[in-house]
Amino acid sequence: MVIASIDMKDGHVVQLKNGKDLMLQRDDADNLINDFNKFGEVAIIDLDQALRNTDAKGNTKNTELLKSLLRKGNVRVGGGIRDVKKARELISLGAEKVIIGSAAWKANPKEGESVLNVSFLEELCKAIGKQRVIISVDAINGKIAVRGWTETIDVSLIDGAKEAEKYCSELLFTCVEKEGCMQGTDMESVKALRKTVSCRVVAAGGVNSLEQIVELEKLGCDVQLGMALYTGVVNLKDAFINCLDFEKVNGMIPVIAQSPAGEVLMMGYANKEAFEKSFATGKLTFFSRTRNCLWTKGETSGHFLELLKMRADCDRDTVLATVKPNGGACHTGSFTCFGSDPDAKSNMERLYDVISERFANPRPGSYTATLDDKRVREKVMEEAEELTDDAETKEEVIWEAADLLYFVSVLMYKEGVTWQDVYNELDRRHKEK
């Protein structure tokens, strides 16, 4: 699968040739990550951090932009991460993994010493977990490249990879000579690397065709892609579809549809044409085996499943589609094919949506629509007092807690705060500890 790359320098999205020469520059990072995230993971690279172009606080011109993108997709972050504190901060802000480059390597290891900065890597794995660590095994002429690819150390790609695998869940290999050149990557080095290690391998640098992406997929390697995406030589839709293993499942990939809250809605099957139509229309489409034709969910009932993103499983023979349902997903009218309830189960997001709708389209007699800023804050205080001072039985606590959560949700709506914002803050606090 393809991991789309957003490389940043001087506050812009850029693509460089050989890590030095500016080839293109853009300022639409939000649009890019929204598009890229439909198809898979996204890598965000702070090139200024890698080159130590930082201020007194260790920030770059990219720092605020980077932070704003971290929870907008399945994001991995790289570029100049040199200490555990920085890695932990990025994870707490929403990064799923961190890419460690120069900090993983010793500049001049003595004979018999590990080529790795073992004490740092051990501390890092202990702090955030080995599964969150990716180590760059970037290479120039077969030697490990460091310091923003401005230097090499006397360690071969293969020897370095063998050691690095002990401290990470993935290796990111960039053939620096090929980076940004659109001439194809170093397939022989990738093959040697794949034979050497058992962890996930992601190849980058020079990949310039759908055919090479598929070839790398068959080797068991993912691809981190930049220039080929930005120039339109490769598009993510084609890459996603062509990396799926249709042969294993006789041309029909099982597709599981889930709501944004993670509720399983239904399961169907899709061939290549169905995936093409899903991405083209933004509505989840299957292949009906009984009718022997494409079938877009909702084309009769109007209960479409609006496609938000797709993710292939590790074997590339099953797909998880995150969708926004418009009515019941089941032909019986139920919200899910795995239950009989016609509506989604109550949760904080559903409550928030109802409150939002009441303010947008006030109904006669709607209590919610009458709540102004002053009154809703008074009600939060009142309900909190009733919960803490008056509720004595389990039933009373439930009743008063429900009242409090309702008024808190109204207050949040009025202040433009969503429950996802609150979940993100709780997640940040959890990962900081």
Give, in spatial order, the strands making up the sheet with the most strands: 1-4-5-6-7-11-12-13
Give the end-to-end Cα distance, rounded to a whole number of Å: 33 Å
* Total number of beta strands: 19
The fraction of residues assigned to DSSP E strands is 15-25%
Helix/strand/pairing category: alpha/beta
Description of the structure:
The chain has 433 residues and is α/β, with parallel strands linked by helices. Helix content is 36%, strand content 23%. The chain contains 15 helices and 19 strands. The protein has an eight-stranded parallel beta barrel with strand order 1-4-5-6-7-11-12-13, surrounded by seven helices. Helix 5 links the parallel strand 6 (97-100) and strand 7. Helix 4 packs parallel to helix 5 (118-128) and helix 8 (210-219) packs parallel to helix 10 (236-243). The longest helix is centred in the last third of the chain and has 21 residues, at 394-414. The chain starts with a strand and ends with a helix.
